[in-house]
TrEMBL record:
Coiled-coil intervals, chain numbering: none
InterPro entries, per the entry: AB_hydrolase_1 (IPR000073), AB_hydrolase_fold (IPR029058), AB_hydrolase_sf (IPR050266), Epox_hydrolase-like (IPR000639)
AB hydrolase-1 domain boundaries: 64-171
Keywords linked to the UniProt accession: Hydrolase
Keyword Protein biosynthesis part of the UniProt annotation: no
GO MF annotations in UniProt: hydrolase activity
Gene Ontology cellular-component annotations: membrane
Designated name of the protein: Alpha/beta hydrolase
Length: 308
């Protein structure tokens, strides 16, 4: 692995011009470096004829953390976050079915169906019990899994989870109700930059060539994301009635400036959970693990250590 990292660093430093014009190579190289720094390997397995991709790292004897990304996202969301956890924990960061490198299954992508797929994936991995963390749509899936399979969840962490009718409507909700285009689905080149500024208070730096490439890649998936979002809206699984079933200690972590899902959702959730902890991060948007990876990971680690 050290030789691999050294080769990649040489590639990035000695072939800058090539990488600028071949952003796919740039992305692949940067991803490999982030995997190395996080101590993660890229794995895959077959579950009911679906090819599921995931990152895995950390001691095999450590407690298992399962990380679930949000809508239109993938396992890469957890790379820098995981760097601060793999020394002590076994980390599994999934590409949920229909996202990232995982296969697109036929049928529905509603959170109830995805929750059962998650149970099948963990069965195939031989994981009977884990700490489960999810962001946005992944948070709703994580919470529903904890409600349906309470014996399998040692703790639950929800980073700006979906599934709650918040007392204060989010900006995303107001936009969609007005008939405006969904800012989470990239359909034109300029939409990707708009997406970054909608999700983050301070978007992570991306070279322009890489930003264009990521935007083009997102545009290629726009029809699929439209379908998934439509199913999420038309086949809702309200989370509030499920929260009392969750027995695991639960961390609610939100960015105060979240424009996608309003932080006031915590006001609904906290009284319904048996063992809640709450953290609100200032000057953070919808994806704390991307915008503030080290800080959010250390907050999560503090939560986990408090369970011992």
């Amino acid at each position: 692995m050290k030789k691999l990292l050294f080769a990649l660093l040489l590639l990035l430093s000695g072939s800058a011009a090539t990488l600028y014009f071949v952003p796919a190579t740039q992305l692949a190289s940067l991803r490999l470096i982030e995997q190395y720094r996080a101590g993660l390997s890229h794995e895959q397995l077959s579950v009911h004829n679906l090819n599921i991709h995931y990152y895995q790292g950390g001691p095999s004897s450590g407690e298992t953390l399962v990380l679930l990304h949000g809508f239109a996202a993938d396992k890469d969301n957890w790379l820098r976050f995981s760097r601060h956890l793999t020394q002590d924990y076994r980390v599994i960061a999934l590409d949920l079915p229909g996202f990232g490198d995982s296969d697109l299954p036929p049928g529905s992508y509603d959170v109830g169906t995805q929750t059962e797929r998650l149970a099948d994936i963990l069965d195939a991995m031989g994981i009977q019990q884990a700490h489960v963390l999810g962001n946005s749509m992944g948070g709703q899936i994580a919470a529903l899994f904890a409600a349906r399979y309470p014996d399998r969840v040692r703790s639950l962490a929800l980073f700006a989870n979906a599934g709650i009718d918040s007392p204060h409507e989010s900006e995303l909700h107001r936009l969609l109700m007005s008939g405006a285009p969904n800012p989470l689905v990239v359909k034109q080149p300029q939409d990707f930059d708009k997406l970054l500024h909608f999700v983050f208070v301070e978007p992570p730096y991306l070279p322009e060539s890489l930003k264009r490439y990521l935007g083009e890649r997102s545009m290629a998936k726009a029809a699929h994301y439209d379908l998934v979002f439509k199913q999420l809206v038309e086949r809702p699984v309200p989370l509030a009635p499920e929260l009392a079933k969750i027995q695991a200690p639960t961390l609610l972590l939100w960015g105060r400036q979240d424009r996608v899902l309003d932080v006031s959702s915590i006001e609904v959730m906290q009284p319904l959970l048996s063992k809640p902890s709450v953290v609100i991060m200032d000057n953070v948007g919808h994806a704390p693990m991307l915008e503030r990876p080290e800080e959010s990971a250390l907050l999560y680690r503090k939560f986990l250590e408090g369970l011992k």
